[in-house]
Amino acid sequence: MDVANKSMVSEFVLLGLSNSWKLQTFFFIVFSLFYVVTMVGNSLIVITVIVDCHLHSPMYFLLTNLSLIDMSLASFATPKMITDYLTGHKTISYDGCITQIFFLHLFTGTEIILLMAMSFDRYLAICKPLTYASIISPQVCVILVVLSWAVGVMHSMSQVIFALTLPFCGPNKIDSFFCDLPVVFQLACVNTNVVGLFMISTSGIIALSCFILLFNSYVIILVTIKHHSSGGSSKALSTCTAHFIVVFMFFGPCIFIYMWPLSNFLVDKILSVFYTIFTPVLNPIIYTLRNKEVKRAIRKLKNRFANSNKATSHHYS
User: Fold this and answer.
1) On the CB side of 255, how many CA atoms lie within 13 Å of its CA?
2) What stretch of H or E contains 93?
3) Residue 236 above 80 pLDDT?
4) Tens of pLDDT along 66-97?
5) CA atoms of 225 and 116, how far apart (whole Å)
6) Domain 2-310, CATH homologous superfamily name and number
7) 52 near 298, Cβ under 8 Å?
8) What pLDDT sits at residue 195?
9) Whole-angstrom Cα distance, residue 278 to residue 246?
10) Across-strand partners of 11?
11) For the chain, first and last CA: distance in Å?
């Protein structure tokens, strides 16, 4: 990257979440466990949906893409943080830092649009069931997924282009466990507060707008179910509440960090853990593994795998 040559700073130091050796050991164990659970849980969902033909529907197609994004979001910074705890090497190159900013905004931007697409799908299925099949088709689902990635790429490129214009000539310590604009921006050797704050806060405004739309859609869905099914209202309340918890845990930190980019670094670090580490674990549990159809499909997959192993062992014996 040519701009890197104009900056005296060639690498940054990631201060992480704590300087305490005991806390670092605790974080290493917890985050390693969360990362493994995230990758295994989301991989299981992707494989199950692909293998089971009964799950070849728009809703599960969107859920599969959500799992793929969650695995990506969990992988852009967490593995480096885990290895940093092991090696004690907490530096990241200028190019590596810009790459983290790109992938962070790519995956979060894509997930925001995909969550809205999933909400739209559920809204039509529950509130407009007669027109659902004529609106939502496999082709429309593909378009929604492509659109979500396209929006993610455009949003990410805007953030990276802005980051590449920043000159770095002095401080290089980032008070976080990964690179992001709110923390990197404050190390730049130029006074661009107005433009910078506007650039960063637009991410918060976008996240807030999408969050309000999602919240309204869940309220409408819940009200519709309550009017049409008294027996299913408690289950719908439970499902919508669980979905909203995940949405809030993903959107809440994003809104706070980007709408108030000069806020307390400790608060920002704690909040960033939620949407990069905790939410990717919760999504498969909340959205999919609580679903009876998916649990049935997983049992079938498990039985098929067990039977194939028995057949193989009998063949060799």
Assistant:
1) 15
2) strand 91-93
3) no
4) 999 999 999 999 999 888 888 877 899 999 99
5) 19
6) Rhodopsin 7-helix transmembrane proteins (1.20.1070.10)
7) no
8) 61
9) 9
10) 93
11) 59
Best CA proximity match to 12, nearest among 258, 203, 186: 186
Which residues are registered as beta bridge partners of 174?
14
Higher pLDDT, 313 or 258: 258
DSSP class of residue 190? S
DSSP 205: H
With both helix axes pointing from N to C terminus, report the angle between 78-87 and 21-51 in degrees, rounded to the nearest 10.
140
Report how far residue 54's alpha carbon sits from residue 151's, in angstroms, rounded to the nearest whole number. 30
Which tokens go with 171? 């401080």
Tell me phi and psi for residue 92, to 5 degrees: -140, 140
The residue written with tokens 């593995």 in the block is 79
Nearest alpha carbon to residue 48 among 284, 310, 281: 284
Type of residue at 197? L
**Please, what sign has the CA dihedral across residues 241, 256, 81, 100?**
positive
d(CA 315, CA 317): 6
State pTM to two decimals.
0.86
Radius of gyration of the CA atoms of the chain, in A: 22
The per-residue b/e assignment along 166-183, b for 16 or more CB within 10 angstroms, e otherwise, is bebeeebebbbbbbbbbb
Residue 200 backbone dihedrals phi, psi, to 5 degrees: -75, -45
C-alpha 224/C-alpha 240 separation (Å) is: 12
Beta strands in 145-253 (DSSP E): 173-174
Distance, in Å, from the CA atom of 23 to the CA atom of 11, rounded to the nearest integer, reads 25
DSSP states of 235-275: HHHHHHHHHHHHHHHHHHHHHHHHHSTTS-HHHHHHHHHII
Q: Is pLDDT above 80 for 11?
A: yes
Tokens linked to 71:
């695995």
Query: At a CB cut-off of 8 Å and minimum separation 6, what does 237 contact?
Result: 222
